[in-house]
Amino acid sequence: MMKEIFFKNNSANRKSLGSSTEVVPTETTVSEFLEVKGKVLKEYTLKDVDPILSLVNVTVVSSGGKGYYLISEPSMSPDDVKVVGTIVDYVYSSMPTIEEDRGTFFSQKRKIMDYVKEVEEEMELVDNSLDVSKVTYFVLREMSYSGISPMIFDPLVEEIEVTSSEKPVTVVHRDFTEFFRLETNVRFSSERDLMRFVEKISDFGGRDVSIANPMQDFILKEGHRVAVTYGNEVSLPGTTLDIRKHPEEPFTIVDLLRFGTITIPEAVYMWIIAEARKFMLIVGPTGSGKTTLLNSVLMLLNPNAKFLTIEDTPELKLSNEVWVRLFTRTLNFDTGKEIDMADLVKLSLRYRPDYIIVGEIRGSEMEYLVQAVSTGHGGLTTFHGGNVEDVKTRIVSLLSDTVSKEFKNLLSSVVVIKNTTDYLSKKQVRKVTGIWESVGEGFEQIMSYESGGVSLSPQLKDAMNLMGWDENILWKEVKRRGELLSFMVKRNMSSYHEISSTLSEFYLYPEAMERRMEA
User: Fold this and answer.
1) 116 with 108: CB under 8 angstroms?
2) Is CB count within 10 Å lower at the N or C end of the chain?
3) What's the gap between Cα 142 and its chain centre?
4) Is the bond preceding 237 in cis, omega lying within 30 degrees of 0?
């Protein structure tokens, strides 16, 4: 069987650090696991994140119908462990700049490497020739996220889950979605160590978790969303942890077209409806890519427009120059007032934005968003649901009769995105399965993933009229925008800057953009 990485964290916060800090060495030999007939699917290091992470090797293995994510780290001698513990103690007691800059651990690498050499001399370990890079890695590892640090820093890992100290940590890997989750060779030594780690990571997110407050939902400095439960107050058999990682560079519309998440006709339809400032809703279950789709559509809109986004946790990333970014605040000991999404939607009207975007609608804020959209502001948001019927039955039930009628009149389109399974590869694929338009008391599907093109639907016709177009201009725009999307996919544009500059040229210098596409 494979070796498992057990790790302890006796440093929930700075106060609990000191001589009791313990760093447990870890090492994994994948060959031992392969003895039970495993097959290597992928092997890589994390050196592209930072050169110091070239010491970490990741191997994805398939065995017995299950997938495994195996981490190999350098072995640690007793002297190594002693030095790492000494430096971690010093960092938290004497180098506050590192603690204050938790989200950029690697920026402190040079300071730590210099200090490793000093400690080596003071502890009279010169003859043993400490590996400075290795010790520095383990210091950074303990300063950040201990044994799960490689998963945090691995850009291919989308989610990290801990359901019990008695079970291995699992991850969702972008390249191996056919397994749903990969079991890792990392686990917590005990329930107490898991509780301490949850205390530490909650502290990183500016939250306090305890027996009195056993649930927390927060965002880390890197943008990752974290949900935790503490002890067995609300979860059995004990503490749990889920980290949904936020990519440093969110997927663009080009990425989604390449992945097959959305088709060009669907993207063109959403683009025109959004630009006409009609009220559009993106619906899907958890993890289906609602926010990613919303973000990619917003990037298509005129970069000179004024955007105002409202979120529980800041996830949207726009390239617009005029972007007001608001997010909620929960009540805690440091703040005197809780600010919810309804408060922010009311405030948003004071900014006179062209578009009001709410990251996700859950309750009463829908009423204020409806009122905001009714004043002529474009409105886009997401809603947790499985189909269009959820919109009718669940959202309408949140609203008063008067606002409910207004909501039905204002809502133009519902875009449904789901996790689907590819029949041949068995991989999980996020896909826009259909687009529905609001018609009377119900909805009518006007596009599906298999649709051949854009048709003149009632809401598209209304969008045409709102923008002062006739049918000739509408079809010209449909063709032009489809060609631009195809052009960007063929050029494999991936950076925000490149896509943003291309769209700016599309809006401001259309003739020049057409010549560029023809070249």
Assistant:
1) no
2) C
3) 23
4) yes
Question: What's the CA gap between 453 and 460, in Å, rounded?
Answer: 13
* The domain boundary residue, chosen from 216, 244, 272: 244
Residues 236 and 285 in one domain: no
User: What's the CA gap between 127 and 77, in Å, rounded?
Assistant: 14
Helix or strand holding residue 183 (H, E) = strand 182-184
Which of 183, 246, 251, 199 is closest to 493 using CA atoms? 251
Q: How far apart are CA 241 and CA 368, in angstroms?
A: 33
Question: Which tens digits make up the pLDDT trace of 240-294?
Answer: 999 999 877 778 999 999 999 999 999 999 999 999 999 999 999 888 899 999 9
161 and 87 part of one domain: yes
The neighbouring-strand residues paired with 442 are 439
SS3 sequence of 392-422: HHHHHHHCCHHHHHHHHHHEEEEEEEEEEEC
C-beta separation of 358 from 313 below 8 A? no
* Total domains present in the chain: 2
- CATH code of 486's domain: 3.40.50.300
Buried (b) or exposed (e) across 174-195, using 16+ Cβ within 10 A? eebbebebbbbbbbbeebebbb
Domain of 200, in residue numbers:
5-244
* DSSP-derived pairing of the beta strands 182-184 and 170-173: antiparallel
In a shared domain, residues 308 and 361? yes
One domain for residues 206 and 258? no
From residue 318, alpha-carbon distances to 104, 257, 321, 466 in Å are: 22, 18, 9, 25
- β-pair type (157-162, 170-173): antiparallel
Residues 383/390, Cβ–Cβ less than 8 Å? yes
Question: DSSP E strands: which ranges in 408-470?
Answer: 411-421, 428-439, 442-448
Report the chain's C-alpha Rg in angstroms. Answer: 26
User: What local confidence, expressed as pLDDT, does residue 155 receive?
Assistant: 92
Q: Does 268 share its domain with 306?
A: yes
Q: What angle do CA 51, 57, 63 make, to 5 degrees?
A: 160
Q: How far apart are the first and last CA of the chain?
A: 58
pLDDT interval class at 335 (50, 70, 90): low
Higher-pLDDT residue of 394 and 502 is 502
Chosen domain end from 226, 244, 262:
244
Predicted TM-score of the model (pTM): 0.79
